[in-house]
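Standup notes
- DV: blocked on the single-chain target, sequence here:
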Amino acid sequence: MTEMTLAEPLDSADDAVCPVRHWEVPDLAGAAFDPTLAELMREGPVTRIKLPNGENWAWLVTRYDDVRMVANDPRFSREAVMNQSVTRVAPHFIPDRHGVGFLDPPDHTRLRRSVAPALTSKGVERVREKARRMLDEIVDELVQDGPPADLTATVLSPFPIAVICEVMGVPAADRHTLHLWTQLILSSSHGKEVSEKAKREMSAYFADLIGLRESSPGEDVTSLLGAAVGRGEVTLEEAVGLAVLLQIGGEAVTNNSGQLFYLLLTRPDLLDRLRTDPEIRPRAIDELLRYIPHRSGVGLSRIALEDVEINGVPIRAGDPVYVSYLAANRDPAVFPDPGTIDFARSPNPHVSFGFGPHYCPGGQLARLEEELLLDALLDRLPGLRLAVPPDHVPFKKGALIRGPEALPVKW
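- DV (later): unblocked, structure below
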C-alpha cells in the first residue's frame, strides 16, 4: 500500500483535526485503484492533500453528492485558479487565461455554445457511419496482418485520432503531428519544457487553422470556432484554448479504451457475456467507464470564493478544492458493492465525464467510439485474447490519463 505521511504542520487550528496528507500519485498498472485515494475515502468525506508538484495544500472531496455539489456550485471557481499557486499532479501545469477549463459561467457557457452543434447527440450521430467505416478499414488491416498484434498501436490509438481529427476538421495529413503533441502534453515524464513547447505549437497550429476557417462554413469544430470568431462571439485566444482542450481530450479515448479492453481480456467471464449478448453492450460500457480508474490522481482544482461548509467541514474563502470523480464513482451510498462490475447496474449515474458546467464536452463522442470498438473487435475477432500474461502488459509511466503502453493480443 502506498505510504501516506503527514505534511509539516501548518499554522492552522485545523491541523490536529484534518492533517495534510502527502499523495505521491504513483504509476499504477491495470485497473488497480490508487490505494492512497482509497485511504483518503475511508478517512472522511473531506480531507487535505499535498500532491507531488505545485505549492501548499488543497481540500479533497470524495463523496458522490459532495463532488457533484462542488462541481456545479458557482461558489467554487476555476477562473480563480489563475491567480493562485495550487498543489497539483503535473509538473508542467500552466493555465491558459483564455482556456475553457479556466473560465466560469457565463463566459464558459458562451464558449461551449459555439461548438455545441458538433458535440451534441445529433452532431455526434452525424459522424457515426464515417467513424464506423474508418474503424472497419483499421480492423481490416489488423486482420490482414494477422496475430500477434499490439492492439494499442494498431487500433486503439489510430481510431480515436482519426475520429477526433474528423470532428475537429484537422486534415488527415496533420494527424500524426497532432498525436505527437498530445502525447507530450499528457505526459509528465518528458519534463516541463517539452510539454509546454508542445502545447505552444499545438496552439499556434489551431490559431492558423481557425483563422483559415472564419469564412468557410462547416460542421466541424474549427469551422464552428472560425465562424464564431468572425462574428465576434468569441476571441481567437478563447477559440484556440477550446480547440486544444478538445483535441487532447479526444485522444484520452485511447487510454480509456486500453484500460477497458485490458480489463475485459483479463476477465473472460465479462468478455463472454458481451460476445453472447450484444444488447447489453451500451449499458456495460457505462459500468466499465464507472469502474476503470481513468486518470492518475485528480484533475483541475477550484477555489472557494467564500466560506462554505462541505459535509460539516468548513472551507474558507481562497482555499483550493479538488473533487475526485474516481472516488465518487465508488461511493457505496450511490453504487452498491462499488468494487464489483455489474452490467445490470441501474441506475448508473456515474460521473466519469465530470459534472456541472465543466462536464466533458466530448462525452457523447467517447461513448460512440467505445460502442464501435466493442462491436468491431468482439464480433470480428471472436477469439481475441491477451498474447502475454496480464502482468506483462506494460502501462504508461508519468501519464495523467492511465492506460497500457502496449496491449499484445492474438486471436
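- Follow-up: The radius of gyration is 21 Å.
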